[in-house]
Design goal:
Structural class of chain B: alpha+beta
Number of strands of chain B: 8
Strand content of chain B: 5-15%
Strand order of the largest sheet of chain A: 2-1-3-4-5
Number of domains of chain A: 1
Shape of chain A: globular
Largest sheet of chain A: 5 strands, parallel
CATH topology of chain A: Rossmann fold
Oligomer: heterodimer
Strand order of the largest sheet of chain B: 2-4-5-7-6
CATH architecture of chain A: 3-Layer(aba) Sandwich
Helix content of chain A: 25-40%
Strand content of chain A: 5-15%
Structural class of chain A: alpha/beta
Number of helices of chain A: 5
Helix content of chain B: 55-70%
Radius of gyration of chain B: 62 Å
Chain lengths: 152, 363
């Protein structure tokens, strides 16, 4: 995280909140296959994600917010929905783009995700080819097309 | 008598003319005595007659009394008979009362048994309800966990199989790559199974939201999706206009998507595939049907079709998990309707269902 305030999203980091190492490797591979070169920071549980985003605990001292948070739901310590709730409750991260990227297509997850202010909800497809496509679309949208809210 | 005896004694003592007068006087005395005697006898006779008369009267009175007594006795006998009848009746009543009492006791025993039975049923019901609630919660947790956790390893298998075939392509021969394709195909089937099972479980636990659903529009939407997935297929699809039903729109979509999806799949070998979605109404009950001219099925297995994991075709012939029709049946059952199938090998199939409150949309 070496970016400065006001950097375009294409240059900012991606925060991947994911506890499954296989999924981490596959997500990185999918990003690479789509030529997305943004640095990817991985948080392996909800608490670490919050520490990084709020520049607290082990990550005190701070860095810039990422262009987008790819958030899994089932996470150790603090689950994804709770991470989202806390992000939305804090003025610093209220408008931070958060994409829920998860295995579940459970209606309750989708509804709660949106109710808590997720910007989108993407179900990780089992088929890796489809997953690569999904990541490509995500990257294109959140890193290229989307204008991040000012002050994030 | 004593006077006559005295005269006789004098005559023997005296003898002479004096004796003659004495004799006459004696006879007169005797006659006088006789007259007195006669009068006495008459009086006695009279008295006896009186007595006899009195006795006759007495006898009449006695006869009367006797009659009266007989009457009384007769009355008493009748009374006795009446009393006996009454007693008999009372005994009968007492008998009846005993029977009645026994009946009441029996009924009481039955009631007590019934109460005990009800109490047991209530307890069983409470147990069953809490067990059902626990099972439902467990299913919820299970589904949630399956949804989240069971797919991740599949993603890993698929992703790394593909990574292997890409990154190590030069070290893999045709067979090696074919094996990797088989691995990936297996992963897809497994993923489909998980999704279908989750859908089946979801149908069971979903809360019903009743509204009037435009089934014609719903069916056209599903057909649109099918055409998008397989744009190359020229299937003639006829959806009747104005079909409506009272039900949960999401669940009805699941049912109709499964039925149309099946029809779409099993008409694949047909040059001129044809699918129809329509309804007939008989005696106020609307029967909806999805009919196709596909490969059909043997009616022997008509009911087996609706069981979970029941398949009449191999995966090589037609893909599928065998959960679709079980899901359809459960959706329709949750609406209080029925599902059934008709068809023949090679002559297409018709799947029908009813909804509890089917009705036509006003056009």
């Amino acid at each position: 995280m070496t970016l400065t305030l006001g950097s375009p999203a294409t240059k900012r980091d991606i925060l991947l909140v994911e506890d499954n190492p296989d999924d981490v490797v596959l997500t990185l591979r999918a990003l690479k296959k789509n030529n997305i070169v943004n640095e990817v920071v991985v948080a392996t549980d909800g608490a670490e994600a919050l520490d990084r985003l709020f520049a607290q605990g082990a990550y005190a001292g701070g860095t810039l917010l990422p262009a987008v948070v790819l958030l899994d739901l089932k996470l150790p310590k603090i689950d994804g929905l709770e991470v989202l709730r806390r992000l939305r409750a804090d003025p610093r991260t209220k408008r931070l783009p958060v994409v829920i990227l998860t295995s579940s297509r459970e209606e309750q997850d989708i509804l709660r995700g949106y109710n808590l202010g997720a910007n989108s909800y993407v179900r990780k497809p089992v088929d890796f080819t489809e997953f690569v496509d999904a990541v490509k679309n995500l990257g294109l949208y959140w890193l290229v097309l989307n204008e991040p809210p000012p002050g994030t | 008598m004593s006077a006559a005896h005295a005269a006789s004694v004098s005559a023997v003592g005296d003898g002479g003319p004096v004796d003659a007068r004495s004799y006459a006087s004696a006879i007169l005395n005797i006659l006088e005595d006789a007259a007195v005697e006669k009068a006495r006898q008459a009086a006695t006779q009279y008295a006896i007659l009186n007595i006899l008369e009195d006795a006759a009267e007495e006898k009449v009175r006695l006869a009367g009394t006797q009659r009266a007594i007989l009457n009384i006795l007769e009355d008493a006998a009748e009374e006795k008979a009446r009393l006996a009848d009454t007693q008999h009746a009372v005994l009968n009543i007492l008998d009846d009362f005993d029977i009645e009492k026994k009946n009441v006791e029996d009924v009481n025993v039955e009631l007590r048994n019934e109460n005990a039975r009800r109490a047991r049923v209530e307890v069983a019901l409470r147990d069953a309800t809490s067990a059902a609630e626990a099972a439902s919660r467990e299913l919820e947790t299970f589904s949630y966990s399956v949804s989240h956790d069971l797919r991740s390893p599949l993603r890993a298998i698929d992703g790394f199989s593909q990574a292997l075939s890409e990154d190590s392509a030069d070290r893999l021969d045709g067979q090696g790559r074919a094996y990797l394709e088989r691995i990936r195909a297996g992963v897809q089937r497994m993923a489909q199974l998980i999704d279908d099972l989750l859908q089946l479980a979801g149908v069971t636990r979903a809360e019903m939201r009743y509204e009037t659903v435009d089934l014609s529009a719903l069916a056209r939407d599903v057909v649109g999706e099918l055409r998008q997935v397989e744009p190359g297929r020229g299937v003639e699809v006829l959806v009747a206009d104005g079909l409506a039903g009272e039900g949960d729109p999401r669940l009805l979509r699941v049912a109709i998507a499964n039925l149309l999806g099946n029809a779409w799949k099993f008409t694949r070998p047909r040059e001129a595939a044809r699918i129809e979605f329509g309804a007939t109404t008989q005696e106020g009950t609307t029967t909806y049907f999805v009919r196709d001219n596909g490969v059909g099925f043997d009616m022997t297995y008509a009911d087996k079709l609706f069981g979970a994991f029941q398949r009449l075709h191999s995966g090589a012939e037609f893909e599928g998990t065998g959960i679709g029709l079980a899901t359809v049946r459960r959706v329709i059952a949750r609406h209080g309707g029925r599902t059934w199938a008709a068809g023949g090998v090679g002559s297409g199939a018709t799947f029908s269902f009813t909804l509890a409150h089917g009705e036509e949309l006003p056009t």
